[in-house]
Amino acid sequence: MTPPRPLTIRLATQARGAPLPSPPLGLPAWTADADAVAVLLDATQADLRDVTAIADQLPAPSAIAAGAPVLVFATAVRVPDGWRRLLGARRIAVPRAARCAALLVRGYVDIGGSPAASATGDLAWGFAPPH
Question: H or E element: which one contains 91?
Fold first, then answer.
């Protein structure tokens, strides 16, 4: 499947203190007011094998412009507490099927994904439905 190609994208994450990833799809920078959203999942307090735990971290479709894409990164971050923070955040793989299922559960439409071997890397995406 071919991923969406927004011209700008903003980052949504619950992970505090983690280094920000580079924008996906070769975009040069994050744009705070973009309609398209990329989600970096936080595995610090969540079991991301649970689709509901993933869905809880996705923005509500009603908060996204109708038709705007929401992309979910293949890796989540786990930010350690205390002195372990000096070692940095860990990356945790999140299965594409779980990310796509979470988009469906949350109410997104036209859900898709691309494998890690693709030019875009491993992404899952959905689109905000008409409001």
Answer: strand 90-93
Looking at residue 58, what is its pLDDT?
A: 98
- Helices and strands (DSSP H and E) totals, the chain: 2, 7
Taking the CA atoms of 102, 90, 119 and 7 in sequence, report the sign of the dihedral they define. positive
**CB burial class (10 A; 0-12, 13-18, 19+) of residue 116?**
exposed
pLDDT in tens, 86-96: 555 588 899 99
Instruction: Please compute the mean of the pLDDT values over residues 26-39 and round it to a whole number.
Output: 97
Longest dimension (CA), the chain: 46
